[in-house]
Design a protein that fits this description.
This protein is an alpha/beta fold. The protein contains eleven helices and 13 strands. The chain binds guanosine-5'-diphosphate-alpha-D-mannose.
């Protein structure tokens, strides 16, 4: 396939590029002038050499037109987004514009150039937001009750995908992905942040105090390498206009996940709550029912959580 990945310099984007390049696909990826490229340097050199990087500001319609006209992709994986929930409270406008306008520009460019691309949109379990205890595991029919500007931006992306399919026949497949972790995860996100703190403490770069936020939230974690395989299946086998939940179905209280990480170190560490890490409203429980996608594609996560945690800690140990 001739594919385009928006956000190729990011966490999921770099893993997706690695997976597709290793399969032999032709991969184009977008970056911005201020993008940090270091995650791509983690790919084997032979794969890096085959990755085509295209500078593009997705918020700018002209820039996206040039992108689609020059790449003419058979498949588009739209992963680029402002993806950190707390940032969306500090700068809601930026999150909304980034996430919504960029997607509209892609859809409009695909229409303008009559490009018959299969388009995957990376939506999020944060769209479900306020989930009642009797509503888990969450299937695609669950009401969307987002609790952050980020969640609202993802609802908009999701519904725009639905609308562009029905209005113009675009081949849009929406994936609502639950939390995914693994090497290269940004240091702000919970397990990566905890793993980074442990690595820094082990190496004497931080006092033996690990700062935490809300440990009572419950999340459904899947390894990022399993998630990017699912994205490819979604593009290849997903039905246009449909939405699919992606997640393992296994949940961890954040405090219990932290204890599993702490079990991987011999260093004695004090856990300390930090009020600045608390959110105005937190999504308390996310547990995925991915049976719709699994029935369609046969996809199953293959990497156990314990391995994801070990890989994440080792990643930060090598970088602390
Ligand atoms: N980041 C962070 N840092 N979160 C903490 C901390 C901390 O020190 N302590 C506790 N938490 C809790 C958060 O309050 C939240 O309940 C949970 O850990 C997970 O936080 P994040 O890792 O920041 O992820 P998220 O669940 O808010 O959002 C992620 O998953 C979504 C899919 O459900 C992001 O990857 C989103 O982009 C993604 O859409």
């Amino acid at each position: 396939m001739r594919v385009l990945i928006t956000g190729v310099t990011g966490f999921a984007g770099s893993h997706l590029a690695e997976y597709l390049l290793a399969r032999g696909d032709t991969v184009y990826g977008t970056y911005r002038v201020r993008s940090r490229m270091e995650l791509l340097y983690e790919l084997p050199q032979e794969l890096q050499n085959r990755l085509h990087l295209v500078e593009c500001e997705l918020k700018d319609a002209n820039s996206v037109d040039d992108l689609i006209d020059s790449v003419r992709p058979e498949a588009i994986f739209h992963l680029a987004a402002q993806s950190f929930v707390p940032t969306s409270w500090n700068s809601p406008e930026d999150t909304l514009v980034n996430n919504i306008v960029s997607e509209v520009n892609i859809f409009e460019a695909v229409r303008r150039f009559k490009q018959n691309s299969r388009i995957q949109i990376a939506c999020s379990s944060e769209e479900y937001g306020l989930v009642n205890p009797n509503e888990v595991p969450i299937n695609e029919q669950n009401p969307l009750r987002p609790l952050s500007p980020y969640g609202v931006s993802k609802v908009a992306q999701d519904l725009l995908g639905y609308q562009y399919h029905h209005s113009y026949g675009l081949h849009v497949v929406r994936t609502r992905t639950f939390n995914h972790e693994g090497p290269r995860r940004g240091e702000s996100f919970v397990l990566s942040n905890f793993a980074q703190q442990i690595a820094r403490i082990e190496q004497g770069k931080q006092p033996p105090i690990l700062e935490v936020g809300n440990l009572e939230a419950v999340r459904d974690f899947t390894d990022v390498r399993d998630i990017v395989r699912a994205y490819v299946l979604a593009v290849e086998q997903g039905n246009a206009g449909e939405v699919y939940n992606l997640g393992s179905g296994h949940t961890w209280r954040i405090g219990d996940a932290l204890n599993e990480l702490l079990n991987l170190t011999k260093t004695s560490i004090e856990v300390r709550p930090s009020p600045s890490r608390m959110r105005p409203s937190d999504v308390m429980i996310l547990q995925c029912d991915a049976s719709k996608f699994m029935r369609l594609t046969g996809w199953q996560p293959s990497i156990p959580f314990e391995q994801t945690l070990q890989n994440l800690l080792d990643y930060w140990r090598a970088r602390a």
